[in-house]
Clavaminate synthase-like protein
Amino acid sequence: MATAAVLSPTPAVTPEGQSNKALPAWKVPATTKEPLDWVLLETIDLNDLNSSDPAVRESLISRSKHALSVDGFLYVVGTGVTQETIERQLAITQHIIKGIADEEKAGYTAKLSEGSYRGHKPKGIWSRQGVVDNIEHYNFESPSFDGNIDQHPPSLRPYLPEIQAFADYTYNHIVRKILEIISFVLELPPNALWKLHSQEGVIGDSCQRYMGYHPRSQEDEEKTKNIWSKGHTDYNTISLLFSQPIAALQILTPNNEWKWVQHRDGAVIVNVADALDFLTGGVLKATRHRVIRPPTDQSDITRLILIHFARARGDLMLNPLYESPIVKRNGVHAFQNRLDAGERAPTQAEWLAERIKRTGHEKYIEVKKPGDGKVQEHVLGRKVDYYV
């Protein structure tokens, strides 16, 4: 594993043995001065996992259980990733989103219609209220690091070693430790959840994303009610967002209120996603979240972010883990209706592909409460809620 490359801000070395050329630095945006309605989230320190004090470990597990079963979100610190590394990775994000011409990226578009995010997702391919989306991202999966650099734009290739090292460390160190904590929450052996994730390739079946939200016109904001990404859940097990200063992320609280997620230097914002919700029978909550227009003092800045989507093995069927005493006692079978009809729960790969295919093309079937923006669609026997 390339741990040292991740923890050091020094540019990586290319396969040809030449240092990467310098990139324009990512200029750290100032935090907003607007008085936003911030959500209160728990913070856990990964270093507590190795504490020799039983009380520290018990507190870690207890607080994690409460946060992930009630809010579905928490802050994680003690990751071992320096601020310099995060800023370097965001400089690479800036290069991908703003420094590589659209014409060059056009030949490396992700096959969304086939259920895959790998590669480039250009902005402007989805539409809402007559307004095209402002979302752009480039996604890396294990095949992205198979040595075939021709699958990436030429202007991106010099930075692949750094990207690979960062993705490797995030998956094999940060994700693994978080899954160990969640295994303890479920009263399972420490490696129980990690064993459900692939250890093949750099990041298994998971995904490392470099993403940008481009500013929009006031006219477009009014048409879409300032919503950049509608209220949704993620499709994987856990999602990791490396915190950055531009406020835009909101979560739907248990009280059905949208609240802002505040920036924390050096923290990773972690949320439960669909697959973990299914595996725990709903004991751990996949919380609805959305992205909206940043406050006025940040609204003209391109919001650049790093996200890691940890996914279970593609062939894993998303049935509840009844070997967990917590799930057996408190879980509700997410796919009982399908099983009653003689069908089965989907695998992680099936669920992921179907959700990706539908993204931007959802077929809503019902408005639950007029005025609250909540709609639903059926996906592989499961009712999926959105807020539009």
Summary: The first strand starts at residue 43 and ends at 45. The chain has ten helices and 17 strands. Residues 1-19 have pLDDT under 50 and may be disordered.
